[in-house]
Amino acid sequence: QVQLVESGGALVQPGGSLRLSCAASGSISSIKTWAWYRQRQGERLELISNLPRGVDSVKGRFTTSWDNVKNTLSLQMDNLNIDDTATYFCYADIGGSIRYWGQGTQVTVSS
């Protein structure tokens, strides 16, 4: 079993930054892939980025990183805009059909 708890969601102005965290516990060594997803209201889940085991970080529009010491997955988001308003979820996959999700954290971008 793996437990995932997100934090860091907040109300932020356009152009601002946020750092989301996902604290992981349990059978972390079994995780093959980490990921961040988001879901805008009324829309489907959207993959933001995934991070294979052994990779410390991946940079796209946002940066996803894994801290081995703190067992925490992070999502650094800069230059946020209104379209980034969504509930953000962390995800862990151990292969096959076994997947874990956090409870989600709300990010609202508004002036």
Topology:
Elements: E1 2-7, E2 11-12, E3 18-26, E4 33-39, E5 45-52, E6 57-59, E7 63-67, E8 72-77, E9 86-93, E10 99-101, E11 105-109
Parallel strand pairs: 2-11
Antiparallel strand pairs: 1-3, 3-8, 4-5, 4-9, 6-7, 7-8, 9-10, 9-11
Largest sheet: 6 strands, mixed
Total helices: the number is 0
Uncertain runs: none
| Residues in helices, as a percent range | under 10%
The percent range for strand residues is over 45%
Cα radius of gyration in angstroms: 13 Å
Q: What is the total tally of β strands?
A: 11
Q: First CA to last CA: what distance? A: 40 Å
Outline:
globular
Instruction: Calculate the mean pLDDT score and round it.
Output: 95
Assign the structural class, choosing from mainly alpha, mainly beta, alpha/beta, alpha+beta, or little secondary structure: mainly beta
Element string (H = helix, E = strand):
EEEEEEEEEEE
What does this structure look like?
The protein is an all-beta fold. Helices cover 0% and strands 56% of the residues. It has no helices and 11 strands. The chain has strands at 2-7, 11-12, 18-26, 33-39, 45-52, 57-59, 63-67, 72-77, 86-93, 99-101, 105-109. The strands form 2 sheets. Strands 2, 4, 5, 9, 10 and 11 form a 6-stranded mixed beta sheet that branches. Strands 1-3-8-7-6 form a 5-stranded antiparallel beta sheet, with no helix packed on it. It starts with a strand and ends with a strand. The model has no long low-confidence stretch (mean pLDDT 95).
